[in-house]
Design brief:
This protein is an alpha/beta fold. The chain is built from eight helices and eight strands; from the N terminus they run E-H-H-E-H-E-H-E-E-H-E-H-E-H-H-E. It has an eight-stranded mixed sheet with strand order 1-4-3-2-5-6-8-7, sandwiched between helices. Strand 3, helix 4 (62-74) and strand 4 form a beta-alpha-beta unit. The N and C termini lie far apart (37 Å).
C-alpha cells in the first residue's frame, strides 16, 4: 500500500507521480483507478479479468484497503496497487495522461445539499480527474443511488460531456456485461434488499 503524509504530498507530490509505469508496475499497460475502493473487491476483480491493465484502488481508510492489498499480494498479482489518500488529491499523485480509466463504485451519494461538493461526480471533482486522465479516458459510475445516477446525468448533460452508456438497472439491461458482473460487499447488501444497480459510462469533453 502506497501512502504519504498529507503535508509532504501537498508540498512535493507523491514520489510515484509520473512514474507509476516505470517504478511501480514496471510496464506500460494502461492505468485504471477505482475511487473509494473500500475493501478493494472491484479493484482486484478487474485486475483478475484484465491482466494487461494496471489497477490502483484509492481510499482514505487504510484499514479497509488492507484486505484487498492482502489478496493481491497473496495471489501474486503484479497489476494491482492501493493508494491511501483523499480522492480530491489524486492530481498530486498522478500526472496528466498517466491514467486511462476511472471507476467510481458505490460512493456515498452525499444527498444533503450542503455536501454537494463532496459528490464524486460533482463538477469540481470532474475537473480534478481531468488533470490526470488521457484525452480519450473513460469514466464509469456504478451505484445503487438513483439520486446520484440522476444527478450525474444532469451534470454531464449540462456541461456537454459525452455519455456513452446509461442504465437504470444493469440486471435487466446489461445482464451479461463482464465488468459489471463483479460484485462488492456493499453491492451484495443492496441486491439483497432488491435495490436496482445503476451504471453510467462517459468521457469528459475537451476543455475550451
Amino acid at each position: 500500500m502506497v501512502q504519504e503524509p498529507r503535508p509532504d504530498l501537498l508540498e512535493d507530490g507523491l514520489h510515484l507521480k509520473g512514474n507509476w509505469h516505470k517504478e511501480f508496475f514496471k510496464n506500460e499497460h494502461p492505468i485504471v483507478l477505482e475511487l473509494g475502493c473500500g475493501k478493494g473487491e472491484y479493484t482486484v476483480g478487474m485486475a483478475e479479468k484484465f491482466p494487461k491493465k494496471n489497477f490502483v484502488g484509492i481510499d482514505i481508510k487504510g484499514a479497509r484497503m488492507w484486505r484487498g492489498a492482502l489478496t493481491a499480494t497473496s495471489s501474486q498479482m503484479p497489476n494491482v496497487g492501493f493508494l491511501r489518500t483523499q480522492i480530491e488529491l489524486i492530481d498530486y499523485c498522478f500526472t496528466k495522461g498517466e491514467v486511462s480509466e476511472i471507476w467510481i463504485t458505490f460512493p456515498d451519494p452525499q444527498i444533503k445539499y450542503r455536501r454537494r461538493k463532496k459528490r464524486l461526480t460533482a463538477p469540481d471533482m470532474l475537473d480534478v480527474y481531468r488533470k490526470v486522465l488521457t484525452d480519450e479516458a473513460v469514466l464509469h459510475l456504478k451505484t445503487d443511488s438513483q439520486f446520484l445516477h440522476g444527478y450525474t446525468l444532469g451534470i454531464l448533460e449540462g456541461d456537454s460531456h459525452h455519455i456513452l452508456e446509461t442504465s437504470y438497472d444493469i440486471d435487466r439491461q446489461k445482464p451479461d456485461d463482464e465488468l459489471l458482473s463483479i460484485r462488492t460487499n456493499y453491492e451484495g447488501i443492496f441486491r439483497g434488499k432488491g435495490v436496482p444497480i445503476t451504471y453510467l459510462k462517459f468521457q469528459l469533453r475537451e476543455q475550451d
